[in-house]
What we know:
heterodimer, A: mainly beta, seven-stranded mixed β-sheet, four-stranded antiparallel β-sheet, 11 strands, 55% strand, B: mainly beta, six-stranded mixed β-sheet, 0% helix, 54% strand
Amino acid sequence: GAVVSQHPSWVICKSGTSVKIECRSLDFQATTMFWYRQFPKQSLMLMATSNEGSKATYEQGVEKDKFLINHASLTLSTLTVTSAHPEDSSFYICSARGRSMEGYGYTFGSGTRLTVV
Amino acid sequence: DQQVKQNSPSLSVQEGRISILNCDYTNSMFDYFLWYKKYPAEGPTFLISISSIKDKNEDGRFTVFLNKSAKHLSLHIVPSQPGDSAVYFCAASGGSNYKLTFGKGTLLTVNP
């Protein structure tokens, strides 16, 4: 089946530094990738949608200069949290959809726990 | 504004009994609904879905019911097993952009 690998699974960084999270589709071409954020006991909130080779579309309230998304290839998308602050600490999850997947054939990554100290 | 609501943060049932997880939505444009299961520190895994043209979809022990007039759907798990213990998310989508809106989740605990 479709597999999405997300790395790192957890990261601790100092306030003011940048952190990059990678999401790779291992056995399919991900034409669309979605990035979510989940705070404790909250739902998964969609941050942005990225299509291969084009700029990401951000949801309302998500700062595109702070959360940089790159989807340069059909198998890799990255989310960079720039100048991270403690309030950015959260669980970040990617989801990928490939050309051959019908309808809502999403596959989720395993998530990244980001802690900013 | 929560467009997808799961009003029960937790549910506890005995092994072998039925688990019923509920979900309500407010957006009339939603036409496709999904249930995901999530373990701690892992991404969600797809369980079952239903299109708005149906009112029931069944897959093994899992059945999803949709009541469009009430904007309500439910997931039934029969019989419940301890391995079903996880957080269950209801998600909804409408239109062709495939964006999903999630509820806050319900923690299901199945006791042996």
